[in-house]
């Protein structure tokens, strides 16, 4: 039966509806005679009416087609359809009266009125009956999705009304937090308390829950959705009516704010000016060019108009993205952009790239920098951060590259993590090459956390807020130095231009920032409130997860503590201890042996001498969410 109904064309369905209306004309006429008080028996009067019946049915067909009554789908039969049916009945009653006069049939006017009313009721009822029959057929033949509507307000009521005519969705009940609604029937459905969801799911065989509570904040909706999903239910959220009609944006409330808005200090915005001369007209290689720092280095170096920009990157996707971004920026420049897919640990490839492209400046930003990941993968950290730096620095020195700048981290200072230790060893490697290769100006630039970079706290916090929380911070006492990517790279390029003999430059990053307070800022600037003891009804909670292995409560920027000023107020110079050539060679040899043997324990033992032991009054296990 369902297949037959589906196989009918739209024209065939219209003809069917027209035939139904035409057939209802004699039925309505007979009914009218049956209920009307006539001076002669009804059957005798019908004998006089029979001659006009064919004309009346033909007239009814014409009126129906002219008014477009058969064009109305039974599934969309509402007040407009009812109005057309009423007009149809009125014209038909008038037509019956005219035909009775023409054929001299003595019928009282009241019978024509009864006929019009009867036909209208029968025609309208036929649509409703046909629709219910079709709906029953569809329901019998099609699997229905039984839904529970969370929220019995205006949106929920409109949703329930709309779904009642749906072919495959069957609303079964409401749940709502408002106790005044419990036990009531709304849109024909009972309203229950949320605590009865488990029972309702079992009794009513609920497949899905629809959240119809658009007035509730997004984080609170997200929490409700997670709780329902934990029960094994599929959950969908319905936007508000104002969002659907465009009065309110159909978007999440969270918008990404500029990272510098969290710094509470002026951002470094000056032009590179004379520092550009160190990169202008030169062949510049940027390792890790697809990362956050590397990509910004590429953008700012491109603005200095180098002769060639070599983008060295291990990730194919990251390399593709930065190259596609730089191409439009290079339209009015004659810079040759050379994308190179490879690893800085591949000595043969590094040597070939430097020679073929006549590289004069190397900006080394390639590194594994996520503390917990490197802690779990020490050999990968040693290979990339230590051997990668050693390989690139050696080939740069052998190729008589003019300038080599290592982008380092404050975690290299008295490190408590494998990542920090590998970065400290990388610094010592660069200082060793600087002492033995005066033809190349080696330099190191060390700074703290970068807002907006991959894995940094602000994007992480924003993502957590977007999911409805909670926002996770490892410890309430964690503090960090922060810079934006743009200003960090600006100062890296300036410091790199000052490099001469393995100097360690420190970037002045202002006062350290509490990561916990930063988390509160992200929540509040997204338009939400923090859920805590003072505000138990807040939107998003901050959860302290405990400090992680290898991380510190507070970072430092210098090993020796001896800091000198440079001619730039934001760039400082640190006098750091060096290792001998033999000591550095021993470290590199031990690193190669650990990696070749695949012995992670041996790798950890190698970096152990560079890990600072915890101070008696300091917990060094973790940082915030950086």
From TrEMBL:
Organism: Rhodophyticola porphyridii
Domain of life assignment: Bacteria
UniProtKB keywords: Membrane, Transmembrane, Transmembrane helix
Lineage: Bacteria, Pseudomonadati, Pseudomonadota, Alphaproteobacteria, Rhodobacterales
Residue ranges of domain Polysaccharide biosynthesis protein CapD-like in the record: 284-575
Pfam families cross-referenced by the UniProt entry: Polysacc_synt_2
Membrane spanning residue stretches: 15-36, 48-69, 81-103, 115-138
Name of this chain's protein: Polysaccharide biosynthesis protein
Family the entry assigns: Belongs to the polysaccharide synthase family.
CDD domains, alphabetized: UDP_invert_4-6DH_SDR_e (cd05237)
């Amino acid at each position: 039966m369902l297949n037959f109904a589906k196989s009918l064309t739209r024209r065939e369905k219209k003809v069917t509806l027209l035939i139904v209306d035409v057939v209802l004309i004699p039925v309505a006429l007979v009914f009218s005679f049956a209920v009307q008080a006539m001076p002669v028996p009804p059957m005798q009067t019908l004998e006089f009416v029979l001659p006009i019946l064919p004309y009346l049915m033909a007239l009814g067909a014409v009126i129906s087609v002219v008014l477009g009554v058969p064009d109305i789908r039974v599934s969309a039969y509402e007040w407009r359809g009812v109005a057309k049916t009423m007009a149809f009945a009125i014209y038909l009653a008038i037509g019956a009266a005219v035909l009775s006069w023409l054929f001299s049939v003595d019928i009282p006017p009241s019978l024509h009125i009864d006929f019009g009313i009867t036909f209208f009721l029968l025609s309208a009822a036929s649509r409703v009956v046909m629709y219910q029959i079709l709906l029953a057929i569809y329901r019998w033949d099609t699997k229905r999705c039984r839904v529970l509507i969370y929220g019995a307000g205006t949106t929920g009521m409109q949703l329930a009304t709309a779904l009642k005519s749906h072919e495959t969705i069957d609303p079964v009940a409401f749940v709502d937090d408002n106790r005044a609604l419990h036990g009531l029937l709304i849109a024909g459905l009972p309203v229950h308390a949320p605590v009865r969801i488990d029972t309702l799911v079992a009794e009513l065989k609920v497949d899905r829950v629809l959240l119809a509570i658009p007035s509730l904040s997004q984080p609170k909706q997200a929490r409700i959705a997670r709780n329902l999903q934990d029960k094994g239910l599929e959950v969908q959220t319905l936007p508000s009516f104002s969002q659907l009609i465009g009065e309110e944006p159909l978007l999440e409330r969270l918008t990404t704010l500029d990272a510098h808005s969290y710094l509470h200090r002026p951002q470094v915005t000056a032009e590179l000016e004379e520092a550009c001369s160190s990169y202008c007209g030169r062949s510049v290689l940027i390792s890790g060019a697809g990362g956050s720092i590397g990509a910004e280095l590429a953008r700012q170096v491109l603005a200095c108009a180098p002769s060639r920009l070599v983008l060295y990157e291990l990730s194919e996707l990251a390399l593709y993205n930065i190259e596609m971004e730089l191409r439009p920026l290079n339209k009015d420049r004659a810079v040759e952009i050379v994308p190179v897919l490879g690893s800085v640990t591949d000595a043969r490839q590094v040597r070939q790239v430097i020679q073929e492209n006549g590289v004069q400046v190397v900006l080394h930003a390639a590194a594994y920098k996520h503390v917990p990941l490197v802690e779990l993968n020490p050999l990968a950290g040693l290979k990339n951060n230590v051997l990668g730096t050693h390989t690139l620095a050696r080939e740069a020195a052998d190729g008589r590259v003019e300038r080599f700048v290592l982008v380092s981290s404050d975690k290299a200072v008295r490190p408590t993590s494998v990542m920090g230790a590998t970065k400290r060893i990388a610094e010592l490697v660069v200082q060793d090459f600087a002492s033995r290769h005066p033809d190349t100006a080696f330099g190191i630039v060390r700074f703290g956390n970068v807002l907006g970079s991959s894995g940094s706290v602000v994007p992480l916090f924003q993502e957590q807020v977007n999911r409805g929380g909670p926002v996770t911070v490892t410890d309430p006492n964690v503090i960090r130095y922060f810079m934006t990517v743009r200003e960090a790279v600006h100062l890296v390029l300036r410091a790199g231009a000052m490099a001469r003999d393995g100097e360690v430059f420190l970037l002045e990053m202002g006062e350290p920032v509490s990561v916990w307070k930063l988390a509160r800022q992200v929540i509040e600037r997204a338009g939400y409130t923090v859920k805590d003891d003072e505000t138990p009804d807040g939107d998003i909670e901050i959860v302290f997860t405990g400090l992680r292995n290898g991380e510190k409560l507070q970072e430092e920027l210098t090993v020796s503590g001896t800091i000198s000023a440079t001619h730039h107020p934001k760039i400082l110079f640190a006098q750091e201890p060096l290792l001998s050539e033999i000591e550095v060679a021993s470290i590199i040899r031990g690193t190669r042996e650990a990696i070749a043997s695949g012995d992670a324990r041996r790798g950890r033992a190698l970096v152990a001498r560079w890990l600072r032991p915890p101070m008696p009054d300091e917990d060094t296990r973790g940082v915030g969410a950086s």
